[in-house]
Amino acid sequence: MRIDLHTHSTASDGTDTPAELVRNAAAAGLDVVALTDHDTVGGYAEATRALPAGLTLVTGAELSCRLNGVSLHMLAYLFDPAEPELSRERELVRDDRVPRAKAMVGKLRELGVPVTWERVAEIAGDGAVGRPHIATALVELGVVDSVSDAFGSEWLSNGGRAYVEKHELDPFEAIRLVKGAGGVTVFAHPLAVKRGQCVPESAIGELAAAGLDGIEADHMDHDEPTRARLRALAAEHGLLPTGSSDYHGSRKTCRLGENTTDPEIYGEIVRRATGAFPVPGAGG
Prior knowledge:
Blueprint: E1 3-7, H1 18-27, E2 32-35, H2 44-50, E3 56-67, E4 70-77, H3 84-95, H4 97-110, H5 117-124, H6 131-140, H7 147-150, H8 171-180, E5 184-187, H9 201-209, E6 214-218, H10 224-237, E7 240-243, H11 263-272, E8 279-280
Parallel strand pairs: 1-2, 2-3, 5-6, 6-7
Antiparallel strand pairs: 3-4, 3-8, 4-5
Helix pairs in contact: 1-2, 5-6
């Protein structure tokens, strides 16, 4: 089985619609794909309707969190999307996205970059607006060569000249909320230092003690020594090591299935979940 547990659609900051994403996942030879848009479940229905035969959909979300001033992302799988407490927190995060993005556009304009809110909103479309949409606008203007370059310390990274903080969950609270909704939590790309400051390794043990289920080890932003270190930390703290592409369509260079999760690890994630179940494709 080929299993990719971290992808994004136009419901947040990917470039594939949910329907296109699941069709592309099947074409890429995947057996299981997780839809994990940022702080939203808005792509579930379309992805489910379009799900090809032979492909299983895992519903999820990537939750925006912050610990001691450092941003981190928590992948949540197979939770009940209607559970009110977690739903309310996701809404608070989403509601803060527009004013935050507008503030970042304002900072960029103060720095002499002729980016407009109208263009950023157009790029985002119906998705939850975020930094990747602003980064795309910077690429269009020739300010940077790639979306990844826009996330460097000069522009949009944590502490960058145009960075603006947003409402984010405490990760310990995120774990509690996801568990309460019957879901499973995995710390996304925990040592991706090229993205900016990361929480210390000691935090992984603290999160594990609080009920964290796993850590994303195999990821495009982790080199081989980092992957080995994360697998050692997973073994030390009893966590499930996963692998994923973090696919965003054409917005990033990673491919669907570029990194995958071991079928036994996937099976354990499904076993632990009580809020929702994987959806088998019926040839949508």
